[in-house]
Amino acid sequence: MIIRSIQADKVSKKFGARKIFSEISFRVKQGDSLSIAGKNGSGKSTLCKVILGLLSPSLGVVKYDLGNGSVDPADARSAVGFVSPYFSLYEDLTGMENMVYLSRIRSGEDPPRVLLDELFERFQIAQFKHVPVRTYSSGMKQRLKYIFALAGAPSLLILDEPTSNLDESGSNIVRTACKEFQKDGILIIASNEAEEVQWCSATITLNSR
Amino acid sequence: MKRAYAVLQKDIASELRTRYAVNSLFMFVLISVSIILFALRSENVSVDILAGLYWVVMFFASSIGLSRSFVSEEERGTALTLQLIASPMSVYAGKFLYNAVLSLLLNLLVTILYFFFFPSFQIASLDIFLLVMLLGSLGFSAASTILAAIIAKANARGALFPVLSFPVMVPLLMTIMNATAKALEGASLEKAAPEFQVLISYIIVLVGGSYLLFDYVWKD
After folding, report:
1. Which end of chain A is more exposed for a tag (fewer CB within 10 A), N or C?
2. Cα–Cα nearest to A81, from A99, A96, A108, A55
3. Mean pLDDT of B116-136
4. Do B3 and A55 touch (CB under 8 A)?
């Protein structure tokens, strides 16, 4: 499954009476990228969850175009990679066990070992892949999330605070991975770091309310 | 089904690593059976009471062990991970299977302890007893899985499960107690047929209801 484009049409989100954001519209197609900027509490993470279909919009609609028709985000999750501080991996399992079990849950298949080994090397935690995740530092856990996101060969990558907890070397690896991914995938970044916002070709800014 | 099986595999691997549920359940069952043993001493109790006490242990053990299936995902922050990568049905089916396996193992443990400690616990109809164990475990799993998913979103999780599960499990408990008593009395399989019909209906209704409800429970 390949996502050709994402379209958000006048998307609004409220929690009770509290308005988070309103009437957000955009279209991002393959090879394009979009950054979602805004201060703390402006709703960047919430918008990411709405784009992923983890939260329903209060108004408006988000659709993924697969080339042969549009689908709801929830129907194309196997084609999406997501990195966020809000989701965790299983601390009792090793890094490799996390990748294997979660890939099986995601696609029903074992992930290609060659790809996994390559990603562990690329994100420089290969020597820790058979160690329980609870012993990882926060930066290593963030790297592991990237490995999981990319192991599914996604056509849409959504990164919420892409370099949080990462040192300079980790940030550089992520930046390079994003550049490569942008060539034929769709990249969406939510960040309040000016430098990360500039990685993308277009930006929408959410205002705090 | 492959994805549900993967959820089951992940839960088993995680449990084997921490042994949180297994250890606490083993201790709970051992202590409960010991207390029952001290209370009864050498009294010769009826099969009805023995069958009732058997499932009382199972009910409270399930409150401890089976209710953890979704609470642990919320506590570890992995519920969002599962929401992201798996369909609600794969998660429900995987958790249902995990709870069924755990419940069967619990049944096996309680049975072994009863055999060891209570000389009057003699299974006269093995076929009825095995069927009750299987259907009882599936019934416990069906009720616990959906209730665990509901309470996982609440604040007072520990207290909520027994309160919510008791009314839901009353028909199950009454039926399995009757059927277990029949297994101990040595009744024929035909005599326990009404109980099995109720148990099968109970499982179908709960799994069917959960299938319709789970999507709303699981999604924020």
Report:
1. C
2. A99
3. 89
4. no
Query: Which residue type occupies B21?
Result: A
Read off the pLDDT of residues A139-194 as tens digits, 9 standing for 90 and up. 999 999 999 999 888 899 999 988 888 888 888 898 888 888 888 899 999 988 88
pLDDT digit string, tens, across residues B22-79: 888 888 889 998 998 888 877 778 888 888 888 999 888 888 877 778 888 888 888 8
User: pTM for the full model?
Assistant: 0.86
B77 close to A (CB below 8 A): yes
Rounded CA separation B113/B133 (Å): 15
Beta-bridged to residue A37, according to DSSP, are A205
Domains in chain B, number: 1
- Range of B20's domain? 2-219
**How, if at all, do strands A59-65 and A70-71 pair?**
antiparallel
Identify whether the C-beta of residue B104 lies closer than 8 Å to the C-beta of residue B164.
no
CB contact under 8 A, B84 and A87: yes
- Contact flag A55-B220 (C-beta cutoff 8 Å): yes
Q: What is the largest CA-CA distance in chain A?
A: 50
The total of other beta-carbon atoms located within 10 Å of residue A33's CB is 20
Q: Which of A82, A93, A106 sits opposite B14 (nearest CB)?
A: A93
pLDDT tens digits along A3-55? 999 999 998 988 888 888 888 899 999 989 899 988 888 889 999 999 988 88
Q: B78 contacts in A (CB within 8 Å)?
A: 87-90
Neighbouring C-beta atoms of residue A129, cutoff 10 Å: 19
